[in-house]
C-alpha cells in the first residue's frame, strides 16, 4: 500500500513552486491562539478567514485544554506574543462517542497497560467548552487570561456559535 504522504509530497511541490519566496514573521500577526479539535472536517484557516502567519492553531482530540495545551499556550503567549485565546469545539465530535472508563478499559485490555493520560471524553458540548475556558482562565502559567472565548463549530452548517 502506498503512503498518503507520498501523494501529499507531490501536492506540496505543486503548491510551493508557483509561490514567491517569502518570510513571514514567527509571531502571529493577530496575536491570537486557537485551540480546537483534530477533526478533519474543520478547516480552521478557511472557516475563520485566516492567512498564514495570523494565528497559532493548537489541536488535539476534542480541542481539550490539557497540560500539553497549556504548555503550548504558555510558549505562544510568553515567547510569541499572543494575547487572545479562542476555543473551538464542534458538533458530531468523536470524543462524544466514547467514555473515559470505556476507552481506558479498552486500552488496558488490548495492551495490559493503563494509560497515564486522561481520556477527556465529553457528552455535553457547551459544558466541555466552558470547562476548557475555565482551565485557561485558571492557569497561572498564562499571562493573558482576560480575552478567552469559547465556540462550537457546526460541521454541517459551518457556522460558529459562541458559548456564553
Ligand atoms: Zn472533535
If you had to describe this structure to a student in words, what would you say it looks like?
- With 164 residues, this protein is α/β, with parallel strands linked by helices.
- It has helices at residues 4-16, 44-48, 67-78, 100-111, 125-138, and strands spanning 32-37, 55-60, 84-90, 148-153, 160-163.
- The termini are far apart.
- The mean pLDDT is 97.
- It binds zinc ion (ZN).
- Residues 37, 39, 62, 90, 93-95 line the site of zinc ion (ZN).
Count of alpha/pi helices: 5
Low-confidence stretches: none
Largest sheet: 5 strands, mixed
Helix/strand-derived category reads alpha/beta
Question: What's the average pLDDT?
Answer: 97
Tell me the distance between the termini.
47 Å
Q: What general outline do the C-alpha atoms trace? A: globular
Q: How many strands? A: 5
Level of helix content? 25-40%
Q: Could you give the order of the helices and strands?
A: HEHEHEHHEE
Strand order of the largest sheet: 2-1-3-4-5
Query: Strand percentage, roughly?
Result: 15-25%
Rounded to an integer in angstroms, the radius of gyration calculated over CA atoms is 18 Å
Give the names of the bound compounds: zinc ion
